[in-house]
Amino acid sequence: xxxxxxxxxxxxxxxxxxxxxxxxxxxxxxxxxxxxxxxxxxxxxxxxxxxxxxxxxxxxxxxxxxxxxxxxxxxxxxxxxxxxxxxxxxxxxxxxxxxxxxxxxxxxxxxxxxx
Amino acid sequence: xxxxxxxxxxxxxxxxxxxxxxxxxxxxxxxxxxxxxxxxxxxxxxxxxxxxxxxxxxxxxxxxxxxxxxxxxxxxxxxxxxxxxxxxxxxxxxxxxxxxxxxxxxxxxxxxxxxxxxxxxxxxxxxxxxxxxxxxxxxxxxxxxxxxxxxxxxxxxxxxxxxxxxxxxxxxxxxxxxxxxxxxxxxxxxxxxxxxxxxxxxxxxxxxxxxxxxxxxxxxxxxxxxxxxxxxxxxxxxxxxxxxxxxxxxxxxxxxxxxxxxxxxxxxxxxxxxxxxxxxxxxxxxxxxxxxxxxxxxxxxxxxxxxxxxxxxxxxxxxxxxxxxxxxxxxxxxxxxxxxxxxxxxxxxxxxxxxxxxxxxxx
Lengths: 115, 363
Prior knowledge:
The complex is a heterodimer of chains A (115) and B (363). By secondary structure, chain A is an alpha+beta fold. Helix content of chain A is 34%, strand content 32%. Chain A is built from 3 helices and 8 strands, in the order E-E-E-E-E-E-H-E-H-H-E. Chain A has helices spanning 48-56, 63-75, 79-95; strands at residues 5-8, 11-14, 17-20, 24-29, 32-37, 43-46, 58-62, 99-102. Chain B is of the alpha/beta class. Chain B is built from 16 helices and 9 strands. In chain B, strand 7 and strand 8 (257-259) form a beta hairpin. The radius of gyration of chain B is 22 Å and the shape is globular.
């Protein structure tokens, strides 16, 4: 992972690092993560899988590692499918400013280590 | 059902206090004529105590945190408190009069990710607003603060409390809110002082004015729908909860006292002596508040308005019985629909139950 790329079939795509935005509020309520953007007051709830990705979004762990080491073993899903779902989830939340995405490790995006 | 309503429902089922209103001080730089607080400092919590409470609230599952006062910026550690709250990922709303907010404070509030700032404005005219706050120049300072906050892209809401001295100015304040590009809310509720003194209730606006407010489309939306007679209540209404106080919400004073709501001064525990979770789960007062259903309200359960009334159990408590009616809300229901409440009818019956003609001897 040193060159920040991962292989996906014949393509080489950039590795992603994700971090929680500092402009959100979040709390785990009965196993479900509720999140609200302080920017536009958009409200989200995350399912269990998304919650795991969210909690692992420390800016240092590559998304592919989160998928391989956290999602796949915990939820017994295949890596390819989990990877696609994770990419979609990260893309959706980053569009709302909930997650910060970078091709390099992120040092300061979140005011907290975990919700 | 919206996502937010779903989460509220979930919190209710799990017994989670999803919203907490924390007054960090009762000190204030204004002396509003309708204020229910004693502004002297009787030993408010230290920074460390407040941070510890925030940690406990986060552990208990609190999501919405309202920081209010008094005037929050009277505390020198205000930003340290907000910073700690945001580190714990609370959704933070701040209530302030804005007088101490200039550009640097507005910038800091934005940097900390405060979701909303609610600012009290009583009139668009300085002579009226300043007479209510008893602070000369306060409207000017407050409006400047709103502009500073807006320039940072923050969400600001003007809260317009209506009372005898300013009810004729609500349209002007609404216009001011539009001009400033901020939201506007109106509240005609004047509550007794926390020590039980009811003298400030004389400031409540007359019913005829309330009726006019309820017929203002800009405030209530569809007037016909808003003022429609109440539908017959079903079983779900009778089994319903009066409000969120003590169920998914509570209030904490600057001295660590816990109450079901800021408008419900039923002492339920103190955070200097007990952990928050202990009070929330075991307080006999909170348990009693939670046990009450609409069908348990002796007068209100027989009232046509039982399903639509904004009855505040805290105001009822201040009138002497948390299961009784809140006469201010009876008045609102009446002025909204033209249909008297069960409480009003029973008072009327009581007042005419004596002899209709009293004959006294001339001797």
